[in-house]
Amino acid sequence: MKNIAILAVDDERIILDSIRMQLEKNFNTKYILEFAESADEALEVVESLTESGIDILLVISDYLMAGMKGDEFATILKSTYPTVNIVMLTGQITAEASSSLIEKNIILKLIEKPWKEGDLINLVKTLSVYEN
Amino acid sequence: MQKPEIPYNEKQRLQAVKSYQILDTLDDHEFDDITLVASEICQTPISVISIIDENRQWFKAKVGLDAKETSRDVAFCAHAINKAEEILIIPDARLDERFHDNPLVTGNPNIVFYAGVPLIDEDGFALGTLCAIDTKPKTLTEQQLRALKILAKQVMDLMTLKKKNNALINSERHLIESINFNCPYFLLINGENEIVELGENYVKSIKGIQKNSRFSDYFIWESQFNPSDFLSDQQKYNKLLFFNSIDGKQKFKCSVKKQNSHSYFIFANAVINSNYLISNYNLKITDFPKQDFIAEFLFLLQAATSGLEDFKRLNTILSEKNKELEISKKALINSNSVLEHQVNERTKKIKNLALFPEQNPNPVLELDYEKKEISYLNPVAKQKTETYKISTFDEIIKSFNLSYDVITKKENTKYEFQFKDEIYEVSVYFLENIPTLRLYLHNITEIRLKEKLEKTKQDIFIQQQKVLLDLRSIPQELTFAQKLEVIYRKTSSILKCDRCSVWLYNDDNSAINAKHIYVRQTDTLIDGMSLHSKDFPNYFNALAKDEVISATDAETHSATNEFAVPYLKPLNIVSMLDIPIIKSNKSIGVICNEYIENKHEFTENDIAFAQSIADVISLAYETEQLQLSKLELKEKNKSLQHAFNELVNLQTDLINQEKLATLGLLIAGIAHEVNTPLGAIKASNDNIKYTITNDFIKALKVIDPEDIKKSIDLFMLYKKPLKIFSTREEREIIKSLDIELNNGKYNLSNTLFFARNIYTLGHYFIDPALNEYINHPNSSLLFSFASNLIKVLQSIETINIAVEKANKVVKALNNFSHGNMDNEITDFNLRENIESIVTILWNKIKYGSSVVIEIDESITIMGNQEELSQVWTNIINNALQASGNKCIIKISYLYSSNGHEIIFSNNGPEIPQDVIPRIFDAFYSTKKRGEGTGLGLNIVKKIIDKHKGHIICNSNVNETKFIITLPTYKI
């Protein structure tokens, strides 16, 4: 336990805090929870986690972010760490863009904002079962 | 004595007098001759041509008078000019209250009789008179008066000719002077090679050269520049020859050749030998001499060209006028000789009749006043006395009203008397040496009748003028038909016609229509009718030529005989007077006066009156048309106003639509901006709920109260963070706390857990106060419980932030709609306003763009906040769209002399210079379909215009700038 991490990325602090609350509430003792405010920072976190030998169960990323956008971040991340699971959390991605990302097997799924806490938690739970 | 009245147009009259330049001129035999003829014709010792100056009368010509002028106050002629149309006749000034005490009557030259014909110039000003004056009472016969009138006209013609001649001489002189002045080196020649005029420098420089000498005596022509070519072919050449001397030897010959309206300068440098013969030419076009010479040359060329044109034109006029003058002079001489002949004939006749009373067609009687008996009766007199049974001396005296006074005084007199139906003029002569008086009886019944007729005519004329005056002041508010009714009544009463009607052409002039026909006898209007040109071609032809149709016998008159069967006979119309009604040189119809049963002779006065009536009708018609078109205009105006109102509405609609379109473009972003805080609020709430229901309740049930107390003590150590740390900083702090916990002081298995919780407590290094809790046996429980408490607090804080954020978006949206408070002008804070727009657009801005607002928080401006918000949104949104959401937008403010300047600059792509002038046009868009309505900047411009401000756009590679200037005063 505690060698698997979940990373959430969103440039909106209150969104990030909301995700944090939901994740901490459900998985505080089960996973290492990491949060980043930009794609760049998230890449650093992933790198440092990997160096520390920590597996990453899931990356939850916003789509529309200042600086690097979600799709670019996901593409880079997936190309470096092909095993990582990515979920896109957004209200503004077009159907074509998201389906393209899914088809290319870059992201696992798209969760539309505003999201239901259950959806997010269930996703993590399903993944954790699958991983185990 | 009455002083003469000053004419109402005296100022202009005096100007007219001056224009003839006749006052104080020398004697002129042409005028002298006229006065001589006048005095001979009128049998008066004195005759003068008097010109009325401001304060005097000045005599241009005179016989029988010494004075050159008199004061105006005593001048008879100054009275005469006040009635320009009439001849002023004073039979006996001694008996006339205007003149009886006039010094010219009481003293030298003792005027008794005066007859003066006003001299009327072309413009109708009475300049003076031609008058005949006698020292005895007198009457002039009709022939004498007519002759005097003709002579007066001759005087006037002569004066006019002299005036024109003067003007010509002056202008010719002026022309020559001006040419001479402008270009001393000029030379004008005519087609006959003759020097017409030449500048003074030529006179000085070329020996012997003078006007009227032959050009070829001094110069030789190049063959292709024959002067007659110049002068005959006006299309090809300007008729100019121009010479200039550079030094004594060289002469320049220049000409302007015109072809296809393009001018060529042909500049020939000719060397003149000592005999002023051109020895050779050096033709040059490009090789001009010094620059300043060219300038001078061109100037002189111009002066001489225009001078020559004027000269030629005036010369033509002059010669024409001279011809006219010659003709007039001849005519004058002819008419003078005719008059002279008439006078001679008459004198001869009178002499003959006096010598041979037997042959006199009028009665001649001789009475012996001593014996008081009839001594001679010529055959006519004999016949008359027999007819009227007058046989004695006394009977004659009585019948002729001869007073014994006349007989005893033995004065030759002339007087008039009526005998039975006849009026006679009697000239009484006392024969010399014998006590006999001879009476010449001249039957003037006819003359008097004519005069009476004339008088009646005049009365009618006056009556007509009165009617015309009345009609001219006909109330304008009457309709055309009402006016016509008044006109019909007046016209028929004056012209005594039985039917009167106005016929107007239809649109193609193929017919004339009368709405009504007025019948005088019943004073009623009956229905009119239409006449077609195909039925009455002659009549329509006559009308088309604007002819007056005065048909005393309408059945035979060439223009009206077509009406005989269908119209005249059934109605018993015998005479017609039809006058075309002309408006702006175009015939619009005809006024028709018809006479039933009795034929009517039309006098000139009748026709003139009817023509004036036609003018009145034309005027009334025009007024009607004007009023109609005024009404039409009013209607048009109304519909235009309506259309305008609709446009205004449309524009308001467009502005609203554009607003909606802008909002539509923003709506997704706005939804996101609202959803984000809402999501955060929901998450926070869930968290609070979860913490309370799961953690706290559970904990309170199962945990040792001592531990809870301890947890709360730990919670009390919470330090509210001074700032929100970024996740990166947060990670660093937690990392350093973790290292500290791993330094061996503590025996913990899960240092990271403690590090996170210590961070949550707001501690960034390990406060010694925490040691107690870290080393507590139930440390995990204590920290979890305290952290949960803090997280509840943090959740509440998050909710606050989220609410504020949502509030900001809603507030920003508010800028776009104040509900019904449209057009409200308020003071508002500029920075707040723009910040709220940035909030709305934040969702677009944050990904790749940035906005820098350099506006002081204290700035307030005045305007419609809603509309101006639309402006800011449009401009920022445009910048974002144009740059693909990647630009830096700087919004700054400047208080300038023009007012508030709000400057939006961005580093996006340059707007092409050819596009800038059109960006404010409606429906102009460079954006892709669906991206813009093409109205954005047009609406922006309209809004700024409405605020009485300006918007300009500058763009270059580095920067695109919109500068909005708004007035500081209340709009």
Polypeptide structure, described:
The complex is a heterodimer of chains A (132) and B (971). Chain A has helices spanning 13-27, 39-51, 70-80, 95-103, 117-131; strands spanning 4-9, 32-36, 55-62, 86-90, 109-112. With 132 residues, chain A is α/β, with parallel strands linked by helices. Chain A has a single domain (4-131), classed as 3-Layer(aba) Sandwich (Rossmann fold). In chain A, strands 2-1-3-4-5 form a 5-stranded parallel beta sheet, sandwiched between helices. The longest helix of chain A has 15 residues, at 13-27. Chain A is globular and about 35 Å long. The termini of chain A are close together. Chain B has 24 helices and 32 strands. With 971 residues, chain B is α+β, with helices and mostly antiparallel strands. In chain B, helix 12 runs antiparallel to helix 13 (480-495) and helix 16 packs across helix 22. In chain B, strands 18, 19, 20, 21, 22, 23, 24 and 25 form an 8-stranded antiparallel beta sheet that branches. The radius of gyration of chain B is 57 Å and the shape is elongated. The A-B interface holds A 2, 11-19, 21-22, 24-25, 32, 34-37, 41, 45, 64-66, 69, 91-92, 113-115, 117 and B 668, 671-672, 675-680, 682-684, 686-687, 690-691, 724, 726-728, 730-731, 750, 752, 791, 794-795, 798, 801-802, 805, 843, 846-848.
